[in-house]
Design brief:
Blueprint lengths: L1 H26 L8 H21 L8 H14 L5 H13 L1 H4 L1 H7 L3 H43 L1 H4 L2 H4 L9
Helix pairs in contact: 1-4, 2-3, 2-4
GO molecular function: hydrolase activity
Pfam family, one: LrgA
Keywords: Cell membrane, Hydrolase, Membrane, Transmembrane, Transmembrane helix
Length: 175
């Protein structure tokens, strides 16, 4: 029954994602999406490189390969070495089934029920505390970046104003 529910949720999410992708593609008519195998190849290459980089970190400070992969993907997209259209549709599909991708890890928790019985309360407290800390740090980081952006825009206000404001173009009837 639960599997049927997951399948139904996946199908409805897939329809929503396809609808969003169609409107996204319509907005960017000039951009061509890469074929699915090319997108898989891009993601696989990034994950392979991030696996290699992850092995370079010391054992005392392990960094997961998917985290390095996300950072690499962000850097490649920000540097315009990789176009968003090349990875967009596969990424949207993977996001649409993300709940389904967590099922194996949830099932693997059943193998650790003895740990959950002995240290369950401690684990729950750690999860709650770390979530609160994460939310607070994220809020203050976002607040700081917004403040920095406003300060930067205020400093360079004249540069970022539209042309009509820069040169005070006189419009007929305006004093």
């Amino acid at each position: 029954m639960f599997v049927l529910f997951l399948i139904h949720q996946e199908q409805s999410l897939r329809k929503k994602v396809n609808k969003m992708n169609k409107t996204h593609v319509e907005q960017k008519k000039g951009a061509a999406a890469a074929p699915l195998l090319v997108q898989m190849g891009i993601y696989t290459t990034i994950l392979f490189v991030s696996n290699l980089i992850s092995g370079l970190f010391p054992k005392s400070f392990p960094v997961p390969a998917p985290v390095i992969g996300m950072i690499l993907l962000y850097v490649l997209l920000s540097a315009h070495l990789l176009k968003l259209e090349w990875v967009d549709s596969l990424g949207a599909f993977l996001i649409s089934i993300i709940g389904f991708l967590f099922v194996p890890s949830g099932i693997s928790l059943t193998a650790s029920l003895d740990v959950m019985r002995t240290a369950g309360l401690q684990l729950i407290l750690v999860i709650i505390c770390s979530t609160i800390i994460l939310l607070v740090v994220t809020a203050y980081t976002t607040r700081t970046f917004i403040w920095l952006r406003k300060a930067h825009l205020e400093k360079h206000k004249f540069v970022h104003q539209p042309l009509a404001i820069k040169h005070r173009i006189h419009v007929k009837g305006e004093e």
